[in-house]
């Protein structure tokens, strides 16, 4: 909050220093303060909000989803680590999602970064196509160069269509090819309710669903670097000449908010994919087709509040290092060392942790050959007598079968020894 205040003071001070310009216009092309204009918010309104205000739950948070009253045409609450759905309303209804489309654009960019195909400090030159995008933008000029880092910031914070187009062309050679990759990635993720027609969400003939948006949002949040951008409230470009202000009010007012993306058009209404994390527990809350911006933020808050109030993350306590070696019959080695798969955290109702029990089943012996990674047992996690998770135990190394010659010398050594 203190950092936000310092940024606000610095921004307002800077605006006073350039008083010879009318508010909102630093140059003919780009305003001094840039916001997502498609959201209907103004820089003055956003900057006048109380930076210290924290959005607390309104009333009593319900213990059951049946009591959740969520607006919009569709909505969903998904836990990030498991993908478990805790609440849904018309979750597979196909709807336009406006700039929430940019979640997929950012996902492809982050994947390219992780694969080493591009770097954050790599320069990108704006083409005439990118400069002509319109809508929410940072007013890129033809030939203007920005880094991938700056363009990702512009896309995440102020939903800049020109920044998205520049990134798309840089990655795929053309926007059309990039959109083809968006749809390919959507298919790979099982997003069966989705069709992308551009990289920004300007085309309202495109569609997706609350479920599909949650799926791609969850996938994007697997890239920790994206949070450096999606949690920005205020920042700048062009050496401070262009100030950016985020219209996602959750980032400013909701404890643990990590993003993610707003989107608004007259046909799509007000849409939001909201992400938040507290104490290792993270959720994606998606709400689409709202009539007002307050309805979407209110609905996302209710879903997130419900999740944090009623659930917790629990990692089963299993001492995998204490697993005994398993004898191997007729093998070149007499034993193999068992190793368990990673014990992943589980999503539980608060208070259920004390009722969790774990049992280990391990083969008494194995017949060679034994293959590395072969399943030789399992760890079962039980809750009230019901299995809620299972983790394989595997052979850490392969053991070949003992041949006739090997068996002879092994027997001879035993007799002599």
List the helices and strands and how they pair.
Blueprint: H1 2-17, E1 33-34, H2 43-48, E2 74-79, E3 85-89, H3 102-114, E4 123-125, H4 128-131, E5 145-147, H5 148-158, H6 161-172, H7 175-188, H8 210-220, H9 227-230, E6 234-237, E7 242-245, H10 249-253, E8 257-265, E9 269-278, E10 281-290, H11 293-310, E11 311-314, E12 326-329, E13 335-336, E14 338-340, E15 346-349, E16 356-362, E17 366-367, E18 375-383, E19 386-395, H12 404-416
Parallel strand pairs: 1-7, 12-17
Antiparallel strand pairs: 2-3, 2-10, 4-5, 6-7, 8-9, 9-10, 11-15, 12-13, 14-19, 16-18, 18-19
Helix pairs in contact: 3-6, 3-8, 5-6, 6-7
Question: Briefly, what is this?
Answer:
The protein is of the alpha+beta class and 417 residues long. The protein has helices at 2-17, 43-48, 102-114, 128-131, 148-158, 161-172, 175-188, 210-220, 227-230, 249-253, 293-310, 404-416, and strands at 33-34, 74-79, 85-89, 123-125, 145-147, 234-237, 242-245, 257-265, 269-278, 281-290, 311-314, 326-329, 335-336, 338-340, 346-349, 356-362, 366-367, 375-383, 386-395. The strands form 6 sheets. It has a 5-stranded antiparallel beta sheet with strand order 3-2-10-9-8, with helices on both faces. Strands 14-19-18-16 form a 4-stranded antiparallel beta sheet, with no helix packed on it. It has a 3-stranded mixed beta sheet with strand order 1-7-6, sandwiched between helices.
